[in-house]
Amino acid sequence: MTVKKRVAILISGRGSNMSALIEAARAPDYPAEIVGVFSNRSDAPGLAIAAAAGIPTAFRSHKDFPDRESFDAAIQAILDEWRADLVCLAGYMRIFSTGFAERWTGRMLNIHPSLLPRHKGLKPQLQALDAGDAESGCTVHWVIPDLDDGPAILQRRVPILPGDTAETLAARILAEEHIAYPQALAMVCRGEVAL
Ligand code: GAR
Fold it and tell me: Is residue 136 situated within a structural domain?
């Protein structure tokens, strides 16, 4: 049997993608185990969900650290404690120091609710509507030091329908995110893709 990769998840909020990864990792043949969930917000609903699933959780606030580097060093210490092989960002809304991002390059994934490279940054669903796009979707990609950038691992597409709002489009995309992220993580863990 192949050894499962030890995966830490970083969140800032709801944690529905985190939940999708936790759920997928319950399958005996899934190639990853979720070893911990970190949040930079104590009120992230995902923290309680992870704890209820029996997964170790940790929280640190950047307000308790003098700069980005020392905050990221605190995250690194937690990842070391969990002996994480890989990091999955799942709605983690804080920019990393270059050093941290470089250290995890090739071992850190993110999911973004647009067909990257289109619509990086905030409110990508609204950006897609404003641009008059006929379709949108989600992208699981490698994290490199530039925000919302790095080569795509997997994309799933959805149509943009007449009358769509940012909310209806976000919901349609989110359903695809919950399929895409577990699939992309499995591909990475099985060595089918690499940066
Ligand atoms: C998801 O839609 C994710 O793609 C997005 O935040 C949401 C988090 O939801 N991430 C980004 O926009 C990253 N730039 P979740 O907490 O329910 O997984």
Answer: yes
